[in-house]
Amino acid sequence: MIDAELIALRRAFRLDSYCTLADVGMDGDYVSPLQIASNSPAGPVLLAYNWLDAASARKHHEVLRERGYLPGILFNKVVDRALAACGLTRADVYMTQAFHLLPPVGRSSTIPAKHLDASFNAITRHELKGRKVIAMGADAAGACKRNGVPADRVVDHPSARGPGRTVESKARELASAIQAVLR
User: Fold this and answer.
1) Domains in the chain: ranges and CATH
2) Which of 66, 85, 122, 131 sits most deeply, having the most CB atoms within 10 A of its CB?
3) Angle at 93 between CA 87 and CA 94, to 5 degrees
4) What H or E segment, with its residue span, contains residue 47?
């Protein structure tokens, strides 16, 4: 069960030019739709950059209402392989993101640091209190650092592309971080 105060913080947060979960029909008793499947009260936190863009949320509404994530995208393939390598499921972790609004289009849209920090301070920092945090990617790690919230581990963003960044290599890195914070 997600703390009602955290949900209220997310529902109250607004910035011009971004959509809310309610705007795309995804409001619910969670801070992030990722928590439909990943809301462990005691497991480590997998902290992402942002969830989705509004256009993708509307397009994939049905599967998102059921699962909270898109299973076929690179990000989720990496997360699922990492969890499997640790003998865990999504129910064993708490997933959230640094930015809790949705850009109108483009899953990989760049969010200005001032907007990222506003969301992080209004919402995410409260979710992370007393938790083991794995920041997935430089943007999530940067939000933690700029806002005085320590990340226990930092890994490549699961969607990162480039030489040597395969699904398997990123899953191994994330699995290693998960195992380290569980020790």
Assistant:
1) 4-182 (3.40.470.10)
2) 131
3) 170
4) strand 45-50
